[in-house]
Design goal:
Chain lengths: ~60, ~300
């Protein structure tokens, strides 16, 4: 019974982030957002900027 | 023994509905347009990758969701394998939405509805919106306190719209069926339509370069008052090189996707786009337009 197979991985993650605790929220005036959602939004913005800034490898875009 | 031909009635294939559908489908989606192996040079950018990444993530969502359906919604509470598959389902959904949002941003700033691509844009928006609804019903299908809390909070909002009369978020069976049957079907229909429309109309070409951009690249339009239309501007900038004579379509299929020699300078950045073959999915291009960007039809 239980989650023994992934217990090690779960404990490892739990050591980094407290997955069982209350969510953290950031408030700025009327704006309130959970830290998890803010991180996801920042990651998406970073992905978007990187997709524009990083050149596409030529060997992937062109046939030899 | 001979059969009297006067007694035979031959029906033209195109008179049958199956024949008409086949002809229409082949006309709209010839095999090389449906499954192209070449794309315009400007597609070689990470910004164009996120649509395909979204579909890849959706594939993992569907496969992991199918595996969860085999064992039932409570499987992940009592099995470590179930927990793994459920986590796969959750994280593939997270990536699906992340990729889809970046795809949306990229296409928004490209104004990807240009050139009679409005239907492509709208089907993408609908796929995105219905995916959100599908994810919400997934929250309600977790069978834990989290789903109970979300359900009791959501019911007031749903009831305030009047939809609560037939959409009961506290009805677990109803929400589960919507999550695993009805909404995924609708998402797949719209994603399928979206992809077919991309194949039909091609990916949107870049904006025409502005005069300032041309000057920065050391280029200028020929003559005062010359049009800034893409084809005109690019035709002036980059005439077809004499070293690479234009080929008939069947010969072009074998040509490498490389810039023709002598077409790099001085507008090297631009020449990469200029030298591209016609984009997949565009209307057949005459041979004298091969070195031009497709015209923006908007």
């Amino acid at each position: 019974m239980g989650h023994t197979l992934f217990a090690g991985g779960t404990n490892f993650l739990a050591a980094l982030i407290n997955l069982g605790g209350n969510g953290r929220y950031i408030s700025w005036g009327a704006v309130r957002i959970s830290l998890a959602n803010l991180i996801v939004i920042l990651v998406m913005i970073a992905l978007f900027v990187a997709a524009i800034a990083i050149p596409f490898p030529k060997h992937l875009g062109r046939r030899k | 023994m001979s059969i009297p031909t006067s007694d035979l009635t031959v029906t033209d294939e195109k008179e049958t509905w199956t024949g008409k559908v086949r002809e229409a489908a082949l006309g709209a989606f010839p095999p090389d347009r449906l499954l192209p192996d070449r794309q315009p040079a400007y597609v070689a950018s990470w910004a164009y990758v996120f649509g395909a990444l979204s579909i890849g993530a959706l594939g993992v969502v569907l496969l992991s969701g199918g595996a969860l359906a085999v064992e039932g919604p409570a499987w992940w509470h009592e099995s470590s394998v179930g927990l793994f598959v459920n986590s796969l389902h959750l994280w593939s959904t997270e990536f699906f939405f992340m990729f889809m949002v970046v795809h949306l941003w990229a296409k928004f700033f490209m104004a990807a509805w240009r050139g009679r691509r409005q239907a492509t844009w709208i089907t993408g928006v609908l796929a995105f919106a219905i995916s959100i609804g599908t994810a919400f019903t997934g929250y309600l299908s977790q069978q834990n306190f989290d789903s109970e809390w979300i359900g009791t909070q959501a019911k007031d909002g749903i009831n305030s719209t009047g939809a609560g009369a037939f959409w009961n978020v506290l009805n677990f069976g109803q929400m589960l069926m919507w999550h695993i049957v009805l909404l995924p079907l609708v998402v797949m229909v719209f994603v399928g339509l979206h992809v077919l429309l991309v194949r039909r109309h091609g990916v949107v070409p870049p904006f025409a370069p502005t005069k300032a951009q041309l000057e920065k690249a050391g280029l200028s339009l020929a003559g005062a008052g010359a049009s800034t239309a893409v084809a005109d501007a690019l035709g002036t900038l980059s005439p077809p090189p004499a070293q690479a004579p234009l080929q008939p379509p069947e010969a072009r299929a074998e040509m490498p996707l490389q810039d023709p020699p002598g077409n790099e300078a001085p507008g090297q950045v631009l020449s990469q786009d200029l030298a591209s073959p016609e984009p997949a999915g565009e209307e057949p291009t005459s041979s004298d337009q091969l070195w031009q960007l497709p015209k923006d039809e908007s």
